[in-house]
Specification:
Elements (H helix, E strand, L loop, with lengths): L14 H20 L15 H18 L3 H22 L5 H19 L7 H7 L1 H6 L4 H12 L2 H12 L11 H13 L2 H22 L2 H17 L8 H28 L3 H33 L3 H5 L2 H5 L1 H16 L12 H23 L6 H10 L3
Helix pairs in contact: 1-2, 1-3, 1-16, 1-17, 3-11, 4-5, 4-16, 4-18, 7-11, 8-13, 9-10, 12-13
C-alpha cells in the first residue's frame, strides 16, 4: 500500500480486517469455553449417554482441528497489520511512531497482566514482549522481512534440537520446568479463593504460560506472524485487488497442509527417540497450523469480496472492532463461571454443554458490541488504550 502523503492523509479502515478479527476472537471464546478457560477439569462421563459421548468428542476434535492454533494466529497476523496502519498513518504526517509504539506495548503489558489475573493462558503479555520485533524491523526491506519471517516460522530452536539429537543420541531436548507452576494454578482454580487465584495467576500462572509459549514454539511463530501481518499491510494484501494472490496462497497452503498433517500423525510410529520427535512434531504441527490458518484467511477474503456473504460477514465487524474488550471480558466471565472462586461449573458442564455456554457468551458480547459501536467510535478498552498511548 505505497501511497504518498499528498494523496492520502491516513489509511482508510479496512473492513475485512475487522471481520477477520471478529471471527478469530469468536473462535477463541469457543475454544476457551470447551477448555474451561485453561482449567481442563471436567465432570465424570460415567453413565453419560453414547450420543453425548459422541458429541463431546466430535466437538473437541473438530474445534481444535478447525481453530486450535489458528484463531490465535489470525489474531497475531492482524496485530502486525494494525501496527503497519498506525505506523504508516504517522509516517504520512511526518512522524515516527516507533517510540510511541514502545510505550503502547508497555501499556499492553499492563492490560495483559490484568487479564492474567483471571486467565492463565492469556496472550497479551506475550504480544507486548514479542511486539518489539515490529519496532526493530519495520524499516527493513520487504525481501529481508520475508526471509526473517520464514526463518522464524521454521522454528530455529526446534531445528537446532532436531539436528543435535540426530547427531548425538545422548542429547536431551531441553524444556523449561513448569509442571509445579501449572500445579499451583490448577490447585487455585479447583479449590482456591478469588484472591488466591489472582495472586497465583499473576506469578506462577504467567510464568507457566510464557514457559509453554517458549517450549511450544509460540514465541517464534508469533514474531513471524507479526512481521507477515505488517507486510500484508505494507503490500495492501487485504484489499480486493490482491484477492488473486490469496487464491494462490490458498492452493499452496492446501497442498502443504495435508502432507504435514499426515506426517504429524506418522512421526511417533517411525521415530522412537523422543528428543527428536518432540521438536520435530513442534515444527511440523506449527507449519501445518500456519498453512491451515492461511486457508481460513483466504476463504474469508474470497467470501467477503466475491460472494453475497459480504453483508453477513460485516455484521461481526463491531465484535472485531472491540476485540480487546471482548478478549479480556471473556477471561473475566469465563473464570468466574468455571473456577472455584466463582460458580465452579467445571464440575458440572461437559464439552457439549460448555460449547453451548460459550456460544451464549459470544452472543451476549456480540449484542453489547453492536449496541456500543452504534454509539461510540471505540470499545471501552480500545479507547482507553488509544488515549493512554497519546497521553505522554
Amino acid at each position: 500500500m505505497q501511497l504518498s502523503a499528498p494523496a492520502l492523509a491516513r489509511h482508510p479502515r479496512v473492513n475485512v480486517a475487522d471481520v477477520l478479527r471478529g471471527l478469530s476472537v469468536m473462535g477463541i471464546i469457543m475454544l476457551h469455553s470447551i477448555e474451561h478457560f485453561n482449567f481442563y477439569s471436567f465432570p465424570s462421563t460415567e453413565g453419560q449417554s453414547a450420543w453425548l459421548n459422541f458429541t463431546d468428542k466430535a466437538i473437541w476434535d473438530g474445534m481444535f482441528f478447525l481453530l486450535g492454533g489458528k484463531a490465535y494466529a489470525i489474531f497475531a497476523l492482524l496485530f502486525g497489520f494494525s501496527f503497519f496502519i498506525q505506523d504508516d498513518n504517522q509516517r504520512l504526517k511526518g512522524n515516527d511512531f516507533r517510540k510511541r509504539f514502545c510505550w503502547r506495548l508497555l501499556l499492553l503489558f499492563l492490560i495483559g497482566n490484568i487479564n492474567a489475573m483471571f486467565f492463565t493462558a492469556e496472550i497479551l503479555v506475550l504480544y507486548s514482549l514479542v511486539g518489539f520485533v515490529l519496532v526493530l524491523t519495520c524499516r527493513m526491506s520487504t525481501k529481508s522481512l520475508l526471509w526473517l519471517a520464514a526463518i522464524l516460522m521454521l522454528q530455529p530452536v526446534a531445528l537446532y534440537n532436531i539436528v543435535r539429537a540426530v547427531i548425538d543420541p545422548a542429547y536431551v531436548t531441553p524444556s523449561i520446568p513448569s509442571s509445579h507452576l501449572w500445579g499451583a494454578a490448577f490447585a487455585q482454580q479447583s479449590g482456591g479463593t478469588f484472591t488466591g487465584t489472582v495472586l497465583v495467576n499473576l506469578w506462577e500462572g504467567q510464568l507457566a504460560s510464557l514457559a509453554w509459549a517458549w517450549d511450544n514454539g509460540r514465541v517464534f511463530q508469533t514474531a513471524s506472524l507479526f512481521i507477515l501481518g505488517m507486510l500484508i499491510g505494507r503490500e495492501g494484501w487485504l484489499l480486493e485487488n490482491k484477492l488473486g494472490n490469496w487464491m494462490k496462497v490458498m492452493l499452496v497452503a492446501l497442498a502443504v497442509f495435508f502432507p504435514l498433517h499426515g506426517l504429524a500423525s506418522m512421526i511417533p510410529g517411525y521415530i522412537e527417540n523422543r528428543n527428536i520427535t518432540v521438536p520435530l512434531l513442534l515444527l511440523v504441527n506449527s507449519l501445518a497450523k500456519f498453512a491451515f490458518m492461511l486457508v481460513l484467511v483466504s476463504g474469508v477474503l474470497f467470501l467477503y469480496y466475491r460472494t453475497s456473504a459480504k453483508g453477513l460477514l460485516e455484521k461481526i465487524m463491531p465484535y472485531g472492532r472491540m476485540s480487546m474488550t471482548c478478549y479480556v471480558t471473556q477471561s473475566i466471565v469465563g473464570s468466574m463461571l468455571f473456577y472455584n472462586w466463582g460458580f465452579g461449573l467445571h464440575a458440572h458442564l461437559g464439552i457439549t454443554a460448555s460449547l453451548l455456554l460459550g456460544a451464549l457468551l459470544f452472543l451476549l458480547q456480540y449484542s453489547f458490541c453492536r449496541w456500543w459501536m452504534g454509539r461510540y467510535s471505540h470499545g471501552p478498552l480500545e479507547y482507553a488504550w488509544k488515549r493512554a498511548t497519546w497521553a505522554l
